[in-house]
């Protein structure tokens, strides 16, 4: 019986219940706190860049709802993917495969948080942002996790969209709509996700193969993955500079993002060139590590410029 | 048979026996839920004041 099919064993003969073992920390782990911290950061930047004023308390509620919505997506993802998580070393210790939380408990927890975050955002901030948040959760859980993740090697590209929506949702909390500037923030994360995850997949290939997830290196091979990483990096570099080109970021951001994009490209070219042995692995690890810095720095620079220009 | 029927009914009323570990974790979860609910009460109160502002006092008696 797979973990996903496992039910709480409550029968008339043996009144034993599998559930109730989860600690508060296990439930926090279901929210994927590290992903949540990235969501909070990018959403905060989106909110600060958006034109218009928002009361700080309403801003705090918006970020809280977006963060809880992201956490709910994480919990529902772990509920559905428990069978995959159990066979990958990176995820085997998650609360469901570890037997600390039952799939039913995780599902209930995720759905409650999803409904609560959308409802509160709608009642307190605006219903457009709430509908957008609901769509983001739906996109991540149903379109990515349940449908495309196990179906296509382009899963990361599509799943990346769900991770790219938070700054747009935060923007819409302030303005009540979306526009080109907020779409640029979306595009930066959207284009960043494939090279980031494929670099990881290049040195964690065995894990995904064992789990039967059609990640690009498993299905199309490592050479095709290196081509794709390079293509997405070439697209990412100019999109990273787009906030300056479109006039909602300054010269300093323009110069810094161009430099960061160039370093990203050089590292992606290294991954493309080094295809054998230790050098190949090291190049992939270097690109993966730098990609984290890249996204953080691009958004931190946007935030810093908006704070300085607002003084 | 009345005796076995009584036994079954007694089992049912006894319900699920939680282990010590389950009881301890249930208590910590209950505290976390209580803290969350208290936080929501404060949040809704503050949001109400923020959204209504001074208008909260401006109503017909």
Automatic annotation (TrEMBL), chain A:
GO terms for cellular component: plasma membrane. It is found in: Cell membrane. One of its GO terms (biological process) is heme O biosynthetic process. GO terms for molecular function: protoheme IX farnesyltransferase activity. It catalyses: heme b + (2E,6E)-farnesyl diphosphate + H2O = Fe(II)-heme o + diphosphate. It is an enzyme of class 2 (transferase). The keyword Cell membrane applies. The chain crosses the membrane at residues 35-51, 57-80, 101-121, 127-148, 155-171, 183-203, 229-246, 252-272, 284-304. The keyword Metal-binding does not apply. Gene3D superfamilies: UbiA prenyltransferase (1.10.357.140). PANTHER family: 4-HYDROXYBENZOATE SOLANESYLTRANSFERASE, PROTOHEME IX FARNESYLTRANSFERASE, MITOCHONDRIAL. Carbon 2 of the heme B porphyrin ring is defined according to the Fischer nomenclature. This is Protoheme IX farnesyltransferase. It comes from Roseibium limicola. The lineage of its organism: Bacteria, Pseudomonadati, Pseudomonadota, Alphaproteobacteria, Hyphomicrobiales.
């Amino acid at each position: 019986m797979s973990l996903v099919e496992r039910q709480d064993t409550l029968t008339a003969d043996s009144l034993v219940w599998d559930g109730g073992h989860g600690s508060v920390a296990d439930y926090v782990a279901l929210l994927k706190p590290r992903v949540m911290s990235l969501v909070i950061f990018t959403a905060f930047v989106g909110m600060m860049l958006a034109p218009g004023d928002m009361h700080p308390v309403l801003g705090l509620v918006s970020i809280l709802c977006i963060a809880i919505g992201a956490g709910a997506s994480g919990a529902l993802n772990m509920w559905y993917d428990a069978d995959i998580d159990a066979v990958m070393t990176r995820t085997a210790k998650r609360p469901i495969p570890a037997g600390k939380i039952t799939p039913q408990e995780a599902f209930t927890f995720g759905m409650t948080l999803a409904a609560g975050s959308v409802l509160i955002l709608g009642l307190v901030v605006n219903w457009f942002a709430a509908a957008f948040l609901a769509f983001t959760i739906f996109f991540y859980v149903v379109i990515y996790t349940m449908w495309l993740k196990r179906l296509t090697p382009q899963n990361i590209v599509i799943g990346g969209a769900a991770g790219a929506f938070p700054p747009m949702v935060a923007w819409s909390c302030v303005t009540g709509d979306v526009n080109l500037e907020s779409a640029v923030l979306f595009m930066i994360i959207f284009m960043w996700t494939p090279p980031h995850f494929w670099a990881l997949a290049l040195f964690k290939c065995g894990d995904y193969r064992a789990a039967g997830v059609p990640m690009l290196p498993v299905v199309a091979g490592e050479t095709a993955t290196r081509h794709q990483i390079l293509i997405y990096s070439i697209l990412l570099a100019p999109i990273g500079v787009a906030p300056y080109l479109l006039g909602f970021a300054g010269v300093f951001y323009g110069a810094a993002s161009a430099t960061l994009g160039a370093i990203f490209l050089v590292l992606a070219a290294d991954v493309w060139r080094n295809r054998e042995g230790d050098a190949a692995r090291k190049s992939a690890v270097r690109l993966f590590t730098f990609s984290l810095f890249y996204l953080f720095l691009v958004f931190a620079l946007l935030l810093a410029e908006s704070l300085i220009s607002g003084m | 048979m009345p005796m076995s029927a009584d036994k079954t009914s007694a089992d049912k009323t006894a319900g699920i026996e939680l282990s010590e570990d389950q009881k301890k974790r249930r208590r910590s979860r209950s505290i976390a839920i209580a803290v969350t609910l208290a936080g929501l009460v404060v949040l809704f109160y503050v949001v109400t004041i923020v959204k209504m502002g001074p208008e909260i006092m401006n109503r017909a008696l």
